[in-house]
Write a structure and sequence with these properties.
Blueprint (H helix, E strand, L loop, with lengths): L1 E8 L10 E4 L21 H13 L18 E9 L5 E9 L13 E8 L2 E6 L2 H10 L1
Antiparallel strand pairs: 1-2, 1-3, 3-4, 4-5, 5-6
């Protein structure tokens, strides 16, 4: 699997009104074979890795309760990873967690997960049932 793009919103310290995107197909990352994620304490290094794990697997290694990863004072968080399989097919895995009415103090709602495949110029929804998304991604 080759990660092409990561978009995340309101995960840990990386709080924003619009999703933040890291495009690994654009310079300066495009030409790099290997690169390092570095920065000061609290800059968001682990959050980037959490966001990838959340989009692909619906969980993060360092925390069990996903709502604890949602940025303080926000009512939703999301993560999306576009990746290429070893066969060359392109997929998009998405994770969305919201509180009731997207209100920061609302009750946590069930997570939503999606897996899409790029067909031509369109994203074709392959699965939206959480357990089936997990199975599909493991198969890919």
């Amino acid at each position: 699997m080759k990660i092409l793009r990561l978009s995340l919103q309101n995960i840990n310290s990386l709080q924003s009104t619009e999703p933040m995107t890291i495009d690994f197909t654009e310079n300066p990352l495009k030409g790099c074979g290997i690169f390092c994620i570095s920065g000061e304490t609290g800059a968001g290094k682990s959050t980037i890795l959490d966001a990838i794990s959340i989009a692909l697997y619906g969980k993060a290694a360092r925390i069990k309760e996903m709502d604890k990863l949602m940025s303080y004072g926000t009512g939703q968080m999301s993560s999306e990873v576009v990746f290429e399989s070893k066969e060359g097919d392109v997929y998009k895995a998405s994770y969305l967690l919201q509180r009731a009415r997207k209100n920061a103090d609302g009750a946590v709602q069930p997570a939503k997960r999606y897996i899409y495949q790029l067909v031509g110029e369109d994203w074709n929804l392959l699965e939206s049932q959480v357990s089936k998304v997990n199975e599909k991604i493991e198969h890919i």
